[in-house]
Protein 1
Amino acid sequence: MPEPHADVADFERLLRETYRMVYQIAWSVLANAADAEDVTQEAFLRAYQKFSSLRDGQKFRPWVARMSWRLALNRRRADSRARGRDGAWFAVRRVSDDPEARAAGREVESCLRQNIARLPEKLRSVLLLSAVQGMDARAVAAILQIPEGTVRSRLHLARRRLLEAFLP
Amino acid sequence: MSPCVEWREAVIDCALGKPPGAALEQHLAACPVCSMALAAWRKRAAQLDATLQDLTAVEPGPHMPARILAGIEDGASRPFYWRLIPAAALAVIACAVVSLYSPVRPRRPGPATAMALSAWRSPTRSLLRSSADPLLKGVPRFGEGFLEMKSTGVKNVQ
């Protein structure tokens, strides 16, 4: 629950600066708008509860980003246990079943989704987080708590696997 | 379009933005197939990157900040005892677990039970009783032996 001395104005400003990123991080894990919205809401609620303990305002962005990531991951694990499969990235339609998508030039997108779903979790996490707007290797490393060099090498490996899937 | 087999890996890395080594540059200058493949694969990699950006460039609803703040205010306006509900639930669960898994201690008997236990005699005593008891439990007088004693039932009196 909120602390009485939490600075609401500061929190609101930071919320408006970061909610898009937080939502996109949650979406990158869950690939579902409603779930991503729930996770965003929960992440900010928790952030508000502990806001008074955050001394450095500069750390709010990575802090809430990691919170969103963890919450989204927990939700996906719970969902995959319930559904017996690994999250929404696997739930994409097959290209051949979607002629409209092909006609509209979405074939690449569909294939890409399938290939992302096939990536190992470590590579997929780095790839999707790096694709979120404004997330560089340093930010991704802070969220996943791994070295920046590891982020770069995993990102290269993930992109390489995707490209190879599209090559003759 | 496939590049030379031995250069394929290097061409893929190069298409993904890795700077080509001197050997690859030399080969590309001499091999039009590989340089065409590199150009095509660079385009492909850029297309994939752009599609990936599109996939994650989802926009939340415009009212999301207001909804989040409303949710926080809603949490703040809840009465104090709402905070105790999770703690109370945890306490109940903890009590149940402790009572289920704690070792059972033997209870001390009450006074009535203790009296009954002290009055109890083993039935083997009555089984061991025999008609020779007076003889065996008697003490022979001076000059007598146990075998000469008569079982009179009268105890030895000096």
Protein 2
Amino acid sequence: MGTATEQVVTVEVALRINGAAMPLALDPRTTLLDALREHLRLTGTKKGCDHGQCGACTVHVDGRRVLSCLTLALAAQGKEITTIEGLAQGGELHPMQQAFLDHDGFQCGYCTPGQIMSAVALLVEPCGPNDADVRECMSGNLCRCGAYANIIAAIQDVRGEAKQ
Amino acid sequence: MHPFSFTTAESADAALRLAADDPTARYLAGGTTLVDLMKLEVEQPTQLIDITALPLAEVTTLPTGALRVGAMVRNSDLAHNEEVRRRYPMLSQALLAGASGQLRNMATTGGNLLQRTRCPYFRDTAMPCNKREPGTGCSALHGENRGHAILGTSEACIATHPSDMAVALVALDAVVRATGPRGERAIPIAELHRMPGDHPEIETSLAQGELITAVEIPALPFAARSLYLKVRDRASYAFALASAAVAIDVESGTVRDARVALGGVGTVPWRSPAAEDALRGRAATVATYRAAAEAALAGAVPRQGNAFKIELARRTLVRALTRLEAHAT
């Protein structure tokens, strides 16, 4: 935590988010999560624990799911970052977003962007076919409301369609 | 978080030069431990050197048959590597038993070896901790110590080494390659992690500024039959209460050779030569496995909250060996 008298030194950071270049001037201490939420107003990505334990801040970096709270913005330069805001195409929801709606895969919704970002990444990961496999692959995303059953159903629905 | 400068290293030499004169510099790889501990102000580097762009992300087979794993290979990539799955299943299983999908995509091979303990007193700057602040005392000795170590402890520190991957690697006799101001060297993994003794603040045998570049896993044909079994408070995404990495070479019902290492119970990833001796040359039976488990835990020092780990670790090892034998026949 900085003090009021501490001089904040900023550096130029060139991020690429959801296909667009986003030049910023940031304190080197800024995480990718805070850059998204506080500097770019992309508040779909959520801050839960801020210590890599809850998964609410999950985004994709070069197509792989990572935790934006433990990623420094400076370390994400030159990479392709995708947030929940970047999933829908031309006003049409990503099939995973639609499936979460169809299966009521959330209650309060706070963990949902992280759940969906993880679930979309899981589609191209070596995850087994069963519900138990999906539970294991999704264990890094906590849901305090306990919407897990419907989250699994939503993911399996999309995976089933993808297989056809 | 304390202020720091940030540099992306273009080469290993450049990284070494940046770190050479600065004891407060830290190499940044996946960041899953370091950034977390910086937020807690347990780590206060003034310089971060991003090493993720270094060309150390390859997995290759050496002429000796050893598998060379670059230090920047991500845990998820290593877990799903075909050679690892075929030749060292316990390593793949250990990696997949650790952390979460997101963290495994971030965490690197070198970083995993150097991850810091999850001891809650180490992570809390308001509490005494000999590891974080030498000489202040160990809060865990008479505090909340359910998750703490029972092997390799001292009166100064009982913090558990948290890695799953490293447990498999000590069982496999891996060799850590490092480069530093005084050149390159090979460190047997058993000599990388140091038990706390009177100096829990010194965790590894790496010198200031030394950089892990690769881990080499020797060929070990019988490790194709190996297994990592992890016991924890919940089914997934939790640190081990006890775990066992085992490989066993059985012929005509007799154990010809064995590798045994334990996790969740040691101050370092815990290889057990005593358990291996108790297995070698004996009949591959549950009685033998129980004797090996007795031998593995013979030197355990329990504290108020973690005495249960002695029996838990024994049973974990017996079950791992039993399951491995069942799979083999």
